[in-house]
Amino acid sequence: MRYIDERHLDFAVHPLDGRVSRRQHLILKPFSPKVRPAMSLAEDIEIAPRASRRIKLHGAEGFEGMRVAGRIAAECLDMLTPHVRPGVATAELDRLAREFILDRGALPACLFYRGYSHTLCISPNHVVCHGIPGDRTLREGDIANIDVTVIVDGWHGDTSRMYLVGEVAPRARRLAELTYEAFHRGLEQVKPGARLGDVGHAIQSYVEAQRCSVVRDFCGHGVGQVFHDAPNILHYGRPGAGEALKAGMFFTIEPMVNLGRPQVKVLADGWTAVTRDKSLSAQCEHSIGVTDDGYEVFTASPAGLFKPF
């Protein structure tokens, strides 16, 4: 029997949106591949509301909260960089991330989120997103996206990046490179008065010009004191369409790009999304805030390792 964690934690994470109560103890249960650990919330824990579809505008306090959460999330992925090598089990990377986050007084937002029982999502090769850590080991030539979200004082820092495991095939490296370029082209559209469609169009037009495809089934999202909030950030679209961007909006940009067709399917575990045609997939993600004259990236890597290849 493997254990998720043996510590007693003096917080409880609400499974719907990651809000935190520090009034009760949470005990992490033994994990079996056939049984997801259940989290018991004490009766007196206030149930947090579901995400509102109203787009929130944040002030200076929100920006500071997101900077702190975003930095810890980025530092977590920085820490993992030397450990992502051939032969490492994805469960070991998950353990390292969980201990790193807890040791810094933050919380792993994905742990028990809608029944999910891990800290990271690790998505290698043709896994598009939400890959579940486990006994699988990374192999020479793999590419893998690692996604982490941390909570600090109620604020969520959400980020992911690509890792190349050893020497990879030229087409795999090219896919990772163009995914980062697509992300940055979308990011450069962010400023007050721009439209969400401008962001999606910049990503889509670049990716399709490279004869690859943008996944439609998943999108970016509002973020802040709610894990997944309004607005939805599509990585495709028409320029001038969609919501107008305003200073104080927080959201993620996280394009998923396939070497083949855009269609995906979710496996029987209810989480793991893979490409239908088994083609390689890549993704990168930042949490950002719209400022008066552009944007701020909350999850920038302090070590300059957002693109660790």
Would you write up a description of this structure?
This protein is α+β, with helices and mostly antiparallel strands. The protein has one domain (about 5-25, about 55-295): Creatine Amidinohydrolase. The protein has four helices and 21 strands. The strands form eight sheets. Strands 7, 8, 10 and 11 form a four-stranded antiparallel sheet that branches. A hairpin with a 6-residue loop joins β13 and β14 (about 230-235). The longest helix has 21 residues, at about 60-80. The chain is globular. Residues about 1-50 have low confidence and may be disordered.
Distance between the termini: 36 Å
What would CATH call the architecture?
Answer: Alpha-Beta Complex
The share of residues in extended strands comes to: 15-25%
Secondary-structure content class? alpha+beta
What would you report as the Rg, rounded to the nearest angstrom?
18 Å
The number of helical elements comes to: 4
Beta strands, count:
21
